[in-house]
Structures are given as C-alpha cells and as structure tokens.
Known about the structure:
Layout: H1 2-11, H2 24-30, E1 38-41, H3 50-60, E2 65-70, H4 75-84, E3 86-91, H5 96-107, H6 115-124, H7 139-149, H8 154-161, H9 165-179, H10 184-199
Helix pairs in contact: 2-3, 3-4, 7-9, 7-10, 8-9
Amino acid sequence: MRQILTGWIDAAKGFHCLSAYGSAEGALASLPREASDILLVDINLPHMNGIECVRRLKPLMPKTQFLMLTVYADTDHIFSALAAGASGYLLKETGQKELIASLKLTHEGGAAMTSQIARKLVQSFQPQPEKPEPNGLTPREQAILKLLSRGDYYKEIADSLSISVHTVCTHIRHIYEKLHVRSRAQAIAKYTHSTATTTTTDPPVRSKG
C-alpha cells in the first residue's frame, strides 16, 4: 500500500514523497527532522495507532497538515483523529485522482474528506440516542466496562477503542451514575450481576406432591 501511494504521489505534478514508514514509532523518530508539508497517516498501525501518532507529531510539526487515510468510517475514529490534529479524513477506497485532489486541497488550507465521512460528520450534529441495554448502559459504555473488568487502564482502553482518555473518563462517569456506584469494583460487580440475571431465562422447576 505504501509503495502504491508513493508511486501515485511521485507521479503527480507538484508533489514528491519524501519518505514512508510502517510504524508510528519509526515516523516519530524521523519525521520532525523533515520539512514535510502533508503527512498521510493510517490508523491501524502495528503498535501505537495513527491517531496517537498525529497527537504526538502535531506539536513538533505545527506547519504540517495531517491527512488520515484509513478503513475506519465510524464517528469515534473520525472525531478522535480530528481532535488529535488531523486536517482531513479519507478512506482507503479513495482512488488516485481523488487522493491527489485531496492533497492539493489540503495544501491550500482546505479540509479533505471522503464524501461518506463528510455525511457522517453532518449527521453527527443530529445524533440519534443509542438504544440502552436492560441495565441502562449503551453499547459503548458496556464495551468500556468489559475492558475495565479485564483490568485495563484508562490509557489502554483509549488505545483499544481509538478514543481519547478524556472520552473514556466521561463514559466511566456516566457508567457510575447509571449503575449508582462509586468505584470500578462496584461497577464491575453490579454489571456482572445484572448480566447474569438477564441471561437466565429458564423458569423455575416445580415438583408436585
């Protein structure tokens, strides 16, 4: 994929690919020394994800524009990437002409986005409430609680779900409020109990005589 993108960029008039990296760690070690105008960043990288990479590189490269190029089309990834400092968000289905046009738009100060992503952003301003589960928790809150019960720290949960630690803390506060608890242990215990209760559907057996 990197070789294909490098070829597309080098073949485009006015553009040249300075370097390509297979990991966030490699990019962090070298990119601040390069005079890059635009960085194309994937999210699903081997260790540190691309959103965290952008968050760390942005202060070191304030004049550089970051353009995400990924398979993730959900709003959590989109908002997390934009909050980290990305200027645009493209899906990997983007073709050569659209990619080069997006690079030009980004270089001119615009916000390049795949049309599907732009629609999701517009729709997000009129969000539909998540359907709560019987215990009152949304699917996202349940996912976070499961990771908590596994012993994950807030930072690990944020990395697993590609959201910020601040967002994790907000969800956990809502979880505590809905379950009427004050600690991780109480939340896990109450959630485990409610899950076990709701999944037991067989009626009691009565004996005669």
